[in-house]
Amino acid sequence: MSSVEKSYYFDNAATAFPQAPGVAEAMTDYLTRVGCNVGRGDYQPAYAAAERVLEVREKLCRRFGAPDPRNVIFTPGCTYGLNAVLKGVLKPGDLVAASPMEHNAVLRPLKQLERQGVRIQWLPCADTGELLLDQAAERLTKDVRLCVLTHASNVCGTLMPVEAVGRLCRERGIFFCVDAAQSAGLVPVNMDAMGIDAVAMPAHKGLLGPQGLGVLLLTDALAEAMEPLISGGTGSRSDLLEMPPFLPDRLEPGTLNLPGIYGLGAALDWWERQDMAALRHREERLTGHLIARLAEYEEDGLRVLGTREEKKQVGVVSVDFLGRDNAECASRLERDYGIQTRCGLHCAPLAHKTLGTYPQGTVRFSVGPFTRFEDIDYVQGAVAEILCE
Known about the structure:
- This protein is an alpha/beta fold and about 400 residues long.
- It has two domains: about 10-20 and about 275-385, Aspartate Aminotransferase, domain 1; about 25-270, Aspartate Aminotransferase, domain 2.
- Helix content is about 40%, strand content about 15%.
- It has helices at about 25-35, 45-65, 80-90, 105-115, 135-140, 160-170, 190-195, 220-225, 260-270, 275-295, 325-335, 350-355, 375-385; strands at about 10, 70-75, 95-100, 120, 145-150, 175-180, 200, 215-220, 300-305, 315-320, 340, 340-345, 360-365.
- Helix 6 links the parallel strand 5 (about 145-150) and strand 6 (about 175-180).
- Helix 1 (about 25-35) crosses helix 9, helix 3 (about 80-90) runs parallel beside helix 4 (about 105-115) and helix 11 packs across helix 13.
- It is globular and about 70 Å long.
- About 50% of the residues are buried.
């Protein structure tokens, strides 16, 4: 427990805090005033709830360049969406391409599928976390069924060349799935422009919505190639013993997380009132400020990972306290200074091997829209005191 009264939140890569204004109120409004299901009840509140769900689909469709609102699938989270694509498309004998910078939300399903006969083609990355595009292009051959790639590393923030990979995949007839867990929000993501067939994202990170909800956006071609991960009631075509053949119902069994969708809708409403370019520019400035402040102590035993160029990454910066226990340093930051970070391997062991920080891991700082520049200056002072001991 921290011994200081004020806390400084630097764990936005795990979950954003605070969420967008209006999120909690929208969820409370649903729970206290609406409360009913959609696609089941034949009464006005159910129709009103269904209209709100459609509005949120439409907002997501416009923002991320999906083909149609029906191609916007609500899931329990980003991890579920990635599993749904990987396990729904890949069959024994198929070849899938992925980078070592992926999160375990991709790596663990791939390991399961590998045991079932799916082959994996690894796309090489530099020790900054950047994809080596020329070498990757040589491995993205036409016999690859699907390529899955993180848009931004959850360890060091490095952005991947999604548009270039999407173009290659489109030219070669490869399905392209993007994990946008760390990018959806401030960094532009457009399925059509970037050649993306599937993009998965959580509500609770860059979108500033609630936990327990994810979004999966799909092209018709990929959706047709997918076998539903789970099946169940949809409120539509109850006469069928198979899942309905149309979207979104085919991939949305069971009751939707309606409080979460109402909360996400409020977050999207808030985002629509913001200057997106200005917020992204501010994130870049915050990230650059954090990198610069931490890099001042490299000669004192602190290694800053990644590209160290704010325009090439999101607001995630990892450091390695060389010769020290990173877990102890993270604990000190919280206990003595109220600075909340994340320490360890960040559910991305191959990323840490690529970056040269396995098995010790790193201490990760991640900024958000509500982080202040003076908070970063405070972090610098705390890190300096720990290093000087």
